[in-house]
Design goal:
The structure is a single chain. By secondary structure, this protein is an alpha+beta fold. Among the domains are: 89-267, no CATH class; 309-347, no CATH class. Helices cover 30% and strands 9% of the residues. It has helices at 7-35, 43-50, 89-93, 126-134, 183-187, 196-204, 214-220, 236-249, 256-267, 317-322, and strands at residues 136-140, 149-155, 162-166, 175-179, 209-213, 328-329, 346-347. The strands form three sheets. It has a three-stranded antiparallel sheet with strand order 1-2-3.
């Protein structure tokens, strides 16, 4: 039987074949999408094509902003006070007793001996020893065994100036020998309790003596560090160190205001050393005072002194100076040995 061609069936077969081919193609595409083959659509795109309608993502709750962490400010600790070094004036100051000022009752210059002494027994009095120590280019009076200084140059510490010293009635006062711790100040801060020979040592101790500008020394007078300091600020540390060393040596005290004034100065130079004793004598042990002799009966006034050789008579060095005759020498009109305390043939010096 001859087969008959049916167009409708042919179209049906063709449609089925095409559908089968489409399935194969789609399967291949899906495989490529899953494996991420180069050239395929991104997985998200495929999911969008195959998963149906896109889902709207759930809104996320807002995340609270992190609170800033408060970091405490770093406070630099206050610097600890520097330890006081041994051997410094500041350390020595801490050993000085602090008390009130005693009355000045009974004070006189003679409580510290009569005039300049020779504590080191070198044949020269303390005044000339200090001039020789503190001056440069000094010259000495001939025949005095290099004791009596007659000229020199002083780099003056209190004022910071230079003084050309020349001994003489009108010029000697330009350079004076200052007691670094004034005698009257010492009297009110413990020296009353010292024996007479200790006070004499104090007044002639090189540690407590300094060649100084006359007007500056007069301005200082009996002041302590609370009421007077050298105008030359560069010398103040050394000056208060000397005062502290003298008071420590003789076991004198300070007032609170004096102590505080010295501490303020030394705070700017905490390493200021304790000064050398500079050859000063050691403090003598207390000597028992001999009982005072009974007062002698009053005598009739002495007859006026006759005029000495040359017809001139001077009652004392004040009269010699007033007459313009100082210094007076052996053989000069009015000369008497009472004017020559150091036995060098010259009296009423400086």
């Amino acid at each position: 039987m001859t087969a008959q061609h049916h167009p409708s069936r042919t179209r049906t077969l063709t449609s089925l074949a095409a559908a089968a081919l489409a399935v194969v193609v789609l399967s291949a595409c899906g495989s490529e999408a899953a494996t991420g083959t180069v050239g395929s659509a991104p997985p998200a795109a495929v999911a969008a094509q195959t998963s149906g309608p896109a889902q709207t993502p759930r809104p996320q709750a807002p995340t609270a902003a992190a609170s800033p962490v408060k970091v405490p400010k770093t406070t630099k600790p206050s610097p600890a006070p520097a330890a006081t070094k041994a051997g410094t004036a500041l350390a020595q100051l801490a050993t000085i007793a602090i008390k009130g000022r005693a009355p000045k009752t009974g004070y006189s210059r003679d409580q510290f001996g009569h005039g300049w002494q020779d504590p080191d027994r070198n044949g020269c009095d303390a005044r000339n020893d200090i001039l020789a120590r503190d001056l440069t280019d000094e010259t000495f009076r001939p025949g005095t065994n290099n004791c009596i200084v007659i000229s020199g140059t002083l780099a003056e510490p209190y004022t910071g100036t230079v003084i050309n010293f020349v001994r003489g009635y009108a010029t000697s006062t330009q350079v004076q020998i200052d007691h670094v711790v004034a005698l009257a100040d010492a009297w009110q801060k413990g020296a009353q309790r010292l024996a007479p020979n200790q006070r004499q040592a104090f007044a002639n101790d090189p540690l407590n003596l300094m060649a100084a500008d006359g007007p500056a020394n007069q301005a200082k007078s009996a002041s302590d560090a609370a009421s007077w300091l050298p105008p030359n600020k560069a010398f103040r540390c050394e000056y208060v160190a000397l005062q502290t060393a003298v008071k420590a040596k003789y076991k004198l005290w300070m007032t609170q205001s004096e102590h505080d004034a010295i501490a303020r100065v030394l705070a700017s130079c905490p390493d200021q050393p304790v000064p050398d004793d500079d050859g000063g004598v050691s403090v003598p042990v207390a000597v028992k005072q001999a009982p005072k002799p009974k007062a002698a009966p009053e005598k009739a006034p002495a007859a006026p002194r006759p005029a000495t050789e040359g017809g001139v008579f001077y009652q004392n060095c004040t009269a010699v100076r007033a007459a313009g005759a100082a210094p007076i020498r052996a053989g000069d009109p009015g000369w008497e040995t009472k004017f020559d305390r150091d036995g060098d043939g010259v009296g009423c010096e400086g």
